[in-house]
Amino acid sequence: MFVMSEIEHTLRLPPHLLNRPLNAAIKGELESLFLDKVIDKLGLCVSVYDILSIDGGFIFPGDGASTYTARFRLVMFRPYVGEVISARLKESTKDGLRLSLGFFDDIYVPVPLMPNPYHTEPDPEHKNGTRWVWEYMGENYPIDWADEIRFRVHTVNYPPLPVEQGKDSEQKDSEEKDSRQKDLKPFAPMVITGSLDADGLGPTAWWV
User: Fold this and answer.
1) What is the dihedral of CA 17, 18, 23, 27, to 10 degrees?
2) How confident is the model over 113-126, as a mean pLDDT?
3) Which of 36, 97, 112, 197 is 20 to 30 A from 58 (CA-CA)?
4) Which domains are present in the chain?
5) Are 131 and 187 in contact (CB under 8 A)?
6) Above 60 in pLDDT, residue 168?
C-alpha cells in the first residue's frame, strides 16, 4: 500500500529561509510542494522520507532566492491491483459505494463489483441514500455506516486533467453546462476502483 519513490527536483529557496539549516529548509519546501499531492503514476505523497543529496545554491540575476537541485525519497500511497485494504463507508448510492481511508477518499465500488446476489433499500440513516444488502443462504447482510469494509483493489487510475472549453463555447452552452455541473464530481487525480465480490470481502462483521 505504501512505497518509496526517489525523485529529483529543482526548487527555489526564498531568502527568508536562508537562516535555517539547509536540510530543514529544503525539506520544508519539499513538503509544501509534494505533501498530500498526487504524482502521476506514482501515487499520493504522504511524507518526505529523507533527502539524499543537495546540489546548487545558485542565485540568478534579479532573483534573491537561491536555486537548489535536491534528490530525495517520498513515501507514496500506491496500492497494487489485488491488494486487500480496509476502509470506511463514505457514501452509498444506487451507483455503488464510496469508501475512505481517512487520508484518501476516492475509492469506488461500482455495481458490477458488489457482492452477488444483492438488493438495495432506502438508507434509514441518510435521506435519499441507498443501503446495499448481500443475500446469502436466505439471510440478509447489510452494509452499514459503522462497518469496517474490506475491499480488493481492482484498478488504480490517474485521470487526465479536464480541458476547459473556450469562452465562445462556454457562453453558448452556459445553461446546459450549469445544469451538468450540479451532477459533476470534483476532479480526482487518482481513483481506486475496489471489489467486494469475493469471500472475505465486505464488512468485517460478516466474517467473524
Assistant:
1) 20
2) 91
3) 36
4) 2-77 (3.30.1490.120), 84-207 (2.40.50.140)
5) no
6) no
pLDDT of residue 169: 52
The Cα–Cα gap between 61 and 183 comes to 49
107: Cα within 13 Å, side-chain hemisphere: 26
38 closest CA partner among 202, 203, 142, 188: 188
- Give the burial class of 22: count Cβ atoms within 10 A of its Cβ; 0-12 exposed, 13-18 middle, 19 or more buried: middle
Per-residue pLDDT, 50: 96
Write the DSSP symbol of residue 102.
S
Burial track 140-167 (b if 16+ CB lie within 10 A, e otherwise): ebebbeebebbbbbbebeeeeeeeeeee
- Write the CB contacts of 94 (distance below 8 Å, at least 6 apart in sequence): 120, 130
- Alpha-carbon span 90 to 70, nearest angstrom: 38
Q: Is the pLDDT of residue 28 over 90?
A: yes
Measured CA to CA, the distance from residue 32 to residue 150 in angstroms comes to: 32
Average pLDDT, the chain: 89
Long-range Cβ contact pairs of 110-117 (< 8 A, separation 24 or more)? 110/193, 113/154, 113/193, 113/194, 113/195, 113/196, 113/197, 114/196, 114/197, 115/196, 115/197, 115/201, 115/202, 116/197
pLDDT of residue 73: 98
Are 33 and 11 in contact by the 8 Å Cβ rule? The answer is yes
Q: What are the backbone dihedrals phi and psi of residue 133, each rounded to the nearest 5 degrees, phi first?
A: -130, 125
Residue with cell 445544469: 179
